[in-house]
Amino acid sequence: MDDAFTGAERDALYKAIFSRRDVRGQFLPDPIPEDVLRRILLAAHHAPSVGFMQPWNFLVITDPAVKARIHADFATANEEAANQFDGERRDLYSRLKLEGIREAPVNLLVTCDRERAGPVVLGRTHMPTMDLYSCVCAVQNLWLAARAEGLGVGWVSILHESALKAILGVPERIVPIAYLCLGRVSHFESTPELAIKGWRQRLDLDDLIFRDRWDNRDSPPD
Ligand SMILES: Cc1cc2c(cc1C)N(C[C@H](O)[C@H](O)[C@H](O)COP(=O)(O)O)c1[nH]c(=O)[nH]c(=O)c1N2
User: What pTM does this model have?
Assistant: First the structure.
């Protein structure tokens, strides 16, 4: 088969998947070369999308003044978020670094234009959120391509959607999907930071797989 991956190509793909990390605190200030940024956006643009709708846009942010405004909204939202927890959990939450907005050389807002392909979209009629999920596929493509390029990505969702839209001039009909911080990094952690810091551990895959019916964990046939 001509289009089969070689062993090395397959290993490279899994390496990108398993060594991808959400990066918050390890950003270096070096600018991202335009050709590299273009490649990772092209990877995002080649994501699957419902009805081939391609509902995404990519808003690239490098102006420190704009980043500062986004960060100010993060600070407010993060305080509100911390108040959702009590006692030790709240102390631990407050010690977590959950964004790299100002340190990352590039911030990127991935959005969804729900009207991109007209009112009726192949595949969206019965599951209307599929256009939003298509944009998340683009984010994941971007995240993996960035890892292969040696760039870290951090997803920041501790933001008020209305503030994000107002600061960035996003039109009413456009939905913000992912606010991302991108840049070269000092290092990639080998496991998620939330696991390292004791917030939450990776679940056991075997506990998540059902067979034929919800909750049926019968072991697979040999
Ligand atoms: C939709 C969504 C939203 C967020 C995240 C992820 C996703 C998918 N993550 C990153 C998240 O904490 C991280 O992916 C997990 O902890 C697993 O770690 P790795 O991504 O494997 O390093 C994240 N991280 C963070 O520090 N601040 C945030 O606001 C968010 N928000």
Answer: 0.96
